[in-house]
Amino acid sequence: MTGHDRAAVHADSIEIAEVIRSIRRGWRVVLGCAASGVVAAMLVLLFAPRIYQGKASVLVRASTDAGASLLSRIGGVGDLLGSGAASLGIGKTAIETEIQVLNSQALARRVIDSLQLQARVLNPVGVPASALLRSSSLPAQFAPRRFRFEKASDGRYRVTGGDFSADATPGVALALPVGTVELATGELPQSFELKFYDREDATSRLEKWLDVGKAGGDVAKITYKGNDPITAQAVPNALVTMYMERRRTVDRGTNQKRVEYLTEQVSTTNADLAAAERALRRQQESSGVLDPQVFGRVGLEQAAELRKSLIEVQVEEGAITQLVAQAASGGLSVRSLAAYPAFLRGASLNALLGQMSELESKRSTLLERRTAQDPEVVALDQSIKSIEAQFVPMASTYATALTRQRVDLTKQLDSMQTAMLSVPATAEAGGRLQRDVLRLSQIYAALQAQLVAARLAAIDEGGDVRQLDTAIAPRKPWFPRPWITLGGGLAAGLLAGLVAALALSWFGRWVRGPAEIERATGIPAQRLLAGAPLLLGAGHPVSRTLLVIPIEDRARAAGGMVAQRLLRTATSRSVDATILDLSADTLRANLNGKGSETEPASSGGVSAAIEDLEKRYGLVVVQLPGLSSDATAAALREGRPVILVAPADRVDRERLRVAVETLRRLDIPCAGIVVGGGDAASALK
Question: Does a cis peptide bond (omega within 30 degrees of 0) precede residue 474?
Answer without folding.
Answer: no
